[in-house]
Q: What sequence folds into this?
């Protein structure tokens, strides 16, 4: 059984499989050109998704920050807890998506 590399996720896979078990990338019946195009499209899709998700996360963080800034809830109210919580969560989510995006771009050769 020969091993080859998945053109989409670069993991080692058997050359006999029709579909990558890691990323479900379809390998069978495609020319090298088609495979490259497909892998590029998949990566583009993934990066678009990451970009829009990070924008959403940033929006949540900004909305929570705006609420905190304008309403200035008391530190022991649930409003304060919720807005600080979503601000932190939004920022963390944003950073996670951005880091994933950087790794995705790095894989592109
Ligand atoms: Zn794969």
A:
């Amino acid at each position: 059984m020969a091993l080859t590399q998945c053109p989409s996720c670069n993991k080692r896979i058997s050359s006999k499989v029709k579909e990558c078990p890691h990323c479900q990338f379809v390998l069978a019946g495609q020319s090298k050109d088609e495979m490259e195009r497909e892998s590029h499209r998949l990566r583009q899709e993934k990066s678009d998704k990451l970009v829009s998700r990070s924008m959403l996360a940033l929006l949540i963080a900004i909305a929570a920050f705006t609420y905190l800034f304008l309403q200035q809830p008391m530190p022991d109210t649930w409003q304060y807890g919720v807005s600080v919580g979503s601000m932190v969560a939004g920022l963390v989510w944003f950073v996670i998506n951005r880091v994933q995006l950087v790794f995705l771009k790095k894989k592109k050769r």
